[in-house]
């Protein structure tokens, strides 16, 4: 018979990495890793920060935080890394999105327009468009300059969602 290992049999716990002072709400890696970004992950937390991790894969020290990204005034709910690994996009309960330069650790853009907590964000495949979902029951489409180009409204089912938008993807 065919005796391929199941996923549960092939997964091996390697390490626990601790640095946040609150719940970790999301983690992201770059979808197309290069030698510069293959060992990087970004984590979001209720401590209002994001951490850029360098994965070391060493016994007893699997990874360490390389940068702390600070700027949100409330929980960071979601994070996604651009396909080139140069930028991260975060969603926060402060009602904003932020675009971060992962080389400098600084915010390059803030996105204003949601009236409640932003729960989910995503980049388009070419990194030129951004989508966000919020507790304000809207989905917003943005360019990378921070301009909201389109909103799927709230209110009635004909206009959009009647409850929170908890996850968006391209």
Instruction: Output the number of helix runs.
Output: 1
Question: Helix and strand string, N-terminal first?
Answer: HEEEEEEEEEEEE
Quaternary structure type: single chain
Strand content: 35-45%
Major β-sheet strand ordering: 1-2-3-4
The major β-sheet equals: 4 strands, antiparallel
CATH architecture: 7 Propeller
Proportion of helical residues: under 10%
Class of secondary structure makeup:
mainly beta
In total, the number of strands is: 12
User: What is the distance, rounded to the nearest whole angstrom, between the alpha carbons of the first and last residues?
Assistant: 40 Å
Q: What number is the mean pLDDT? A: 92
Assign the CATH topology. Methylamine Dehydrogenase, Chain H
Protein name: Guanine nucleotide-binding protein subunit beta-like protein
WD repeats: 17-55, 69-110, 111-143
Family: Belongs to the WD repeat G protein beta family. Ribosomal protein RACK1 subfamily.
Pfam families: WD40 (PF00400)
Report on the structure:
Keywords: Repeat, WD repeat. Belongs to the WD repeat G protein beta family. Ribosomal protein RACK1 subfamily. It comes from Cryptomonas curvata. InterPro entries: RACK1-like (IPR045223), WD40/YVTN_repeat-like_dom_sf (IPR015943), WD40_PAC1 (IPR020472), WD40_repeat_CS (IPR019775), WD40_repeat_dom_sf (IPR036322), WD40_rpt (IPR001680). With 170 residues, this protein is mainly β. It has a single domain, classed as YVTN repeat-like/Quinoprotein amine dehydrogenase (Methylamine Dehydrogenase, Chain H, 7 Propeller), CATH 2.130.10.10. The chain is built from 1 helix and 12 strands. A 4-stranded antiparallel β-sheet has the order 1-2-3-4, with no helix packed on it. A 4-stranded antiparallel β-sheet has the order 5-6-7-8, with no helix packed on it. A hairpin with a 5-residue loop joins strand 5 and strand 6. 35% of the residues are buried.
């Amino acid at each position: 018979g065919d005796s391929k290992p199941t996923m549960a049999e092939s997964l091996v716990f390697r390490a626990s990495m601790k640095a946040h002072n609150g719940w970790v709400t999301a983690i992201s890696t770059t979808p197309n890793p290069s030698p510069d970004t293959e060992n990087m992950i970004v984590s979001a937390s209720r401590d209002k920060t994001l951490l850029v991790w360098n994965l070391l894969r060493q016994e007893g020290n699997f990874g360490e935080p390389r940068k702390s990204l600070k700027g949100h005034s409330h929980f960071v709910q979601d994070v996604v890394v651009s396909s080139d690994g140069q930028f991260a996009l975060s969603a926060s309960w402060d009602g904003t999105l932020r675009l971060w330069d992962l080389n400098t650790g600084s915010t390059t853009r803030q996105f204003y327009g949601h009236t409640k907590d932003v729960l989910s964000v995503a980049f388009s495949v070419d990194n030129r468009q951004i989508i966000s979902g919020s507790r304000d029951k809207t989905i917003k489409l943005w360019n990378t300059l921070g301009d909201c180009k389109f909103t799927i409204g709230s209110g009635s089912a004909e206009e959009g969602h009647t409850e929170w938008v908890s996850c968006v993807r391209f």
